[in-house]
Amino acid sequence: MRFEVIHTCKQSGARVGKLYTEHGVIDTPCFMPVGTKATVKGLSPEEVKATGAQILLSNTYHLYLRPGHELIERAGGLHKFMNWDGAILTDSGGFQVFSLSSLRKVTDEGMYFNSFIDGSRHFFSPEKSAEIQRALGSDIVMAFDELTAPDISHERAEEAMERTLRWLDRFASVRLKSHQTLFPIIQGNMYADLRVESLKRSMPYATCGIAIGGLSVGEPAETMYAMLDALAPHLPKDMPHYLMGVGTADYIVEGVARGVDMFDCVLPTRIARNGTAMVREGFLTIRNAPYAEDFTPVDDTCDCYACRNYTRAYIRHLIKADEIMGGRLLSIHNIRFLERLAAEIREAIMQDRYLDFKEDFMKQYKG
Question: Hey, which of 27, 105, 214, 268 would disulfide with 112, CB 3.0 to 4.6 Å?
Answer without folding.
Answer: 105
